[in-house]
Amino acid sequence: MSNPTIQFLGAAETVTGSRFLVTYNNQKILVDCGMFQGEPEIASHNDEKFPIDESSINALLLTHAHLDHCGYIPALVKNGFTGTIFTTHYTELIAEVVLRDSAHLQMQRAEFEDVKFKADERGSLLYNEVDVEKALKQFKAVEIRARIEVLPDVFATFYPSGHILGATFILLEIGGKSLLFTGDMGRGSHPFLYGPDLPPSQEIDAVITESTYGDREHETPISDFAEELNKAIERGGSILIPAFAVDRTEEILFELRRLFDARAVKSIPVYIDSPMAEKVLVFYKEAIEQGTPDIKSDVAEAFTSSDPFDPGKLRIMTTVDESKLLNDISEQSIVISASGMATGGRVTYHLESMLPDPSNTVILVGFQAKGSRGLALQQGAEKLRIHNNWVPVKAAVANVESFSVHADRKEIVSWLSHIANPTQTFIVHGERESQEALKTALEGELGWKATIPELEKTYEVR
What we know:
Elements: E1 5-8, E2 20-24, E3 27-31, H1 40-43, E4 59-61, H2 67-70, H3 73-78, E5 84-88, H4 89-112, H5 129-136, E6 139-142, E7 147-151, E8 154-160, E9 168-174, E10 177-181, E11 206-210, H6 223-235, E12 239-242, H7 248-261, E13 270-273, H8 275-290, H9 297-302, E14 314-316, H10 320-325, E15 334-337, H11 347-354, E16 361-364, H12 373-378, E17 383-386, E18 389-392, E19 396-399, H13 409-416, E20 424-428, H14 432-446, E21 450-451, E22 458-460
Parallel strand pairs: 3-4, 4-5, 5-6, 10-11, 11-20, 12-15, 12-16, 13-14, 13-15, 16-19, 20-21
Antiparallel strand pairs: 1-2, 1-22, 2-3, 7-8, 8-9, 9-10, 17-18
Helix pairs in contact: 4-5, 4-8
């Protein structure tokens, strides 16, 4: 009987589009089903025909609810996938918000391009809101750390990864082999989520590891955030923080409350301008109130009767009209808006309004992919193209990496060192230079044999 195989349908030699197909005899399990994001030549993979027949996939295992891991699921279902989608409770809840938002944005974009709803029949949209509704019916929440049978004689165990609420790494046992998928690995320094569990002690045949920050170590301490906020306040203008709606916004609010309470930073109004963040915030509050396994016990105990995400002058802008009002506010304030890489969303309008004013400050608080406006700002761009206009960058731009929820090179290697020498290691979910750097580290420090897989290539699990 042959060994299982793994085919890399995404996140190979790039940082997005996580899709890993494990096949054994007639059983096919897809681990993650994300969208490609970033530069046009990368994002264009979303429009390509899926490499295999979607209806032939028997089950899907989802590590967490970021778009580059779950965003393609409705398209998979639309095109014939009928199996169960196994994931954790909070990943299911957050994925619903993320996927509804994704469909909504696609519809908006189609209308903007004067391609109406009927265009979906011609393939102009990956999926619509009806497809999302259909996909959501196939989700099934599982208990963390529980070994479950996802197909006959195929078992999966979901372990907390400390990346975002509900996020996991997955141990998949199939055809006599054990495969460990790190998903996106957390750091252990999250303010209210526990760090990742250690890898299971059993023998692992193949490790599929992320490498987002495989070529660097996080150097900025959390104190740098307070320092940059104080500098920005001294400039007299307002502060714009591009931030992803899932986890990053919640982290920033949590830290702002701490800084304001300690009077380490002057308390000024804070505006959340992200409908998705508003919805996800409800799940984070609920998890802390209930003291779920993801949440640090001291945090759950400290906020039994207060809101950990309200710095004191918090207002959430729900409608488009409310969002527009922010561009006319004269009072110094902090605006937190998606997306975190400034590739789209309401933050682009705030950048257009705030960048030309040298009294304002933009604080970047996360990974900035190639081709994103965030990376251009990080690299000192003097102007940005936004809404078909060139916008001068006169505002101050600061970079604070302390909020990153991706393990860096040192942290990944340290975590993986708890695994006895696996037969194979595949490095995914990173830019090429990050993958190469992590490969060098794993081979040099752990003595492992590591492979950077090619997109759509199939490898036997030995």
